[in-house]
Design goal:
This protein has about 80 residues and is an alpha+beta fold. Helices cover about 45% and strands about 15% of the residues. About 5% of the residues are buried.
Length: about 80
């Protein structure tokens, strides 16, 4: 029995509608890929968009990929045009 590709799981659950690189599915099925999600620490609270990102991270981690979750000053500085 072959292990299901996390890409297929994310499509089935509605997290992926389209991709710009068709090679992504093959990559996610062949090797463990590190990925990151950054959260802005200056926001008033977390919202549904953050939850969706965390759910994708959960599926990716269960499939053997390596999550990097960032919350901090660097994350705020990168996305903040005033800095």
């Amino acid at each position: 029995m072959s292990k299901e590709n996390v890409f297929d799981i994310l499509v089935e659950r509605g997290y992926i509608e389209q991709v710009t690189h068709d090679e992504l599915k093959d990559l996610l099925g062949k090797e463990s890929v590190p990925f990151y999600i950054g959260f802005d620490p200056t926001a008033d609270s977390l919202h549904i968009g953050h939850f969706i990102s965390l759910m994708v991270a959960s599926h990716m981690q269960k499939a053997g990929h390596k999550p990097i979750l960032l919350m901090g000053g660097g994350t705020a500085t990168i996305g903040d045009p005033s800095r």
